[in-house]
Amino acid sequence: MVGTVQHNKRSFFVGALPGLPPVEPGREFLVEAGYLPARTRDGKGAVRDNAHLYFMLHRAMYKPKKRKLIVWLNGGPGCSSFDGSMMEIGAWRFENGKLGWTKLGGSWNEYADVLYVDQPVGTGFSYVQNDGYAKSLTQVGEEFLIFLRNFVSEYPEYDRQRHKDRGPGGAVDVYITGESFAGEYIPYIANSILTVGNSAPIKLAGIAIGNGDMDPKAQSGSEVDTLVDAGIWKANGPEVQEMKSTVQKCQEALAKDEIPHIRYPECDAILHKVLNISTHKRNDTEYCINSYDLRLEDTSPACGMNWPNELAATYTFLRKSEVRKALHVDQINKPEAWIECNTAVSRSLRAESRKSKASVSLLPHLLDSQLPILLFAGDKDIICNYLGLKRMVDTLEWSGKRGLDGTPLDWRINGELVGTWHADRNLTFVRVYNASHMVAYDQPLPAHDMMLRFMGVDMNLGANAAALNTSTVGLDARILVPDRGKTHIPGHATPSSRLPLSSAEKLVSPPTSTATDNKSGALADRNSHFDLWGNVFVIALVALAVAGCLLVRRRVRMRPVRYQAVEPYQAGMDVDPNAQVSVPPSMEHDMEMEPFALGDEEEVMTPK
């Protein structure tokens, strides 16, 4: 019989990670990882079903004026958050099969602590006995709340109760973030936290969801419109005609419910058919469109499940015994090799997902509770695409009004148009140009800037930061990050193993106007955005930034912060306080959008 393993703070410390090169001086940070209970009897006492969630905590490299904690979840359901840590927002990434450090400006733990969690139980390195997987999103929310209580018990610096004597602003701001099917998880988790009121273990300061699976009524059928909008299909072409009956059946199923459920088989069939229509043979091999990036194609029937290109290296890395040992993977309770998405977790939630209310139904309450919400969408995704999310926002009612007032603002980094920004009544909706389902994979610097803006981080820049990245939303300008002269952090180029769709090669840059949605096939060249006044404005911003640096030359240079839980390096601890810590963020490849789309329980298309 497998017993419950007792964990403690001392066992969480992670030293050097095998295969990771030495960190650049000044970017050191602490990493801790391990397990905490997520299911107890009657919410307290002994652990039930030996249910434990695996976590990895990356402390901030640099200390902002007010400490922040970002919690990152991938989707699926059942996809590991190592996707996020190793391919999206983490401190290290694979390049040409080798693990290395993310370029400055691309890692979310530069100015905030980041907590990656494999959840629900059974996901990634997490475990549970007796096939006791979560059966509803309400249960997912409740068990994550138990995990958070155990987390702040181990790390009281994040405990809301510990700081309540300092007033509402005393506790650490916590933001729960994620993508794809995390669009269902996160509102349910946030609702669980708000429901317990003042006894909540953390100070929830906001939630952020990228390309989320949230609203079947608004999102179903938008796959077709997205391909038409991209110029891949014609508005009245044969592909669109072939899709009409499938979309109609979905709409009829949705019409039966005033509040939509999470999943409808009739609506899941839409993506399945899109992929079938796109399938074609070339050199005796069948290819189809990549459901996570319409600019790419993949072999059939994967249609994107082999993507990103770094996924294979992530599998190899996380299955190494020395890596598992370094990351404190429980060899007794989790002897199985790491997999990106656990279909058993997905299957367990399947029946209930056809009864549970879609998370969009929770958004009005969360917004009216004054909880800031960021919804962002890479505009090259198909499975949880921008158009579907825009329709959801446009029809959402809260605070006595429908949709967002005003018009979207241009969002630029270093003068380059990277998206649009629309904020009103606690809701921020961001379109990220030329980004896939995994926004930070393609656009790491804009994704990081977006999160820093949402959290209101003051980065406490040092006077020697001669080269700076500038960020503007409308007329609101700020300095993004010092970049030591490297002013562009590229996303991932199209992998050689993925073949770009010939019809998608037209998709070069975003539309020129942000006031309305242009549905043109061939998009104008990005340089058309840079008129004379735009250039003058950017030059003025850079001049102001340099002047600001000169004025603060005497300020102390920003130093890396080494946070440690409670009492750092107590006597007797078997860790070296001077050791260089280099631990890669957990990597996950969660196909987060259509967890139950294909009907075959063993080969489901999951929203990462």
UniProtKB/TrEMBL annotation:
The chain crosses the membrane at residues 532-552. It comes from the Eukaryota. GO terms for molecular function: serine-type carboxypeptidase activity. It is found in: Golgi apparatus, trans-Golgi network membrane. Residues 510-519 have a biased composition (Polar residues). Its main location: Golgi. It is a single-pass type I membrane protein. GO terms for cellular component: trans-Golgi network. It catalyses: a monoacylglycerol + H2O = glycerol + a fatty acid + H(+); Preferential release of a C-terminal arginine or lysine residue; a diacylglycerol + H2O = a monoacylglycerol + a fatty acid + H(+). This is Pheromone-processing carboxypeptidase KEX1. Coiled coil: none annotated. The keyword Glycoprotein applies. Pfam families: Peptidase_S10 (PF00450). Residues 486-520 are annotated as: Disordered. Belongs to the peptidase S10 family. Gene3D superfamilies: alpha/beta hydrolase. Its EC number is 3.4.16.6. PANTHER family: PHEROMONE-PROCESSING CARBOXYPEPTIDASE KEX1, SERINE PROTEASE FAMILY S10 SERINE CARBOXYPEPTIDASE. GO terms for biological process: apoptotic process; proteolysis.
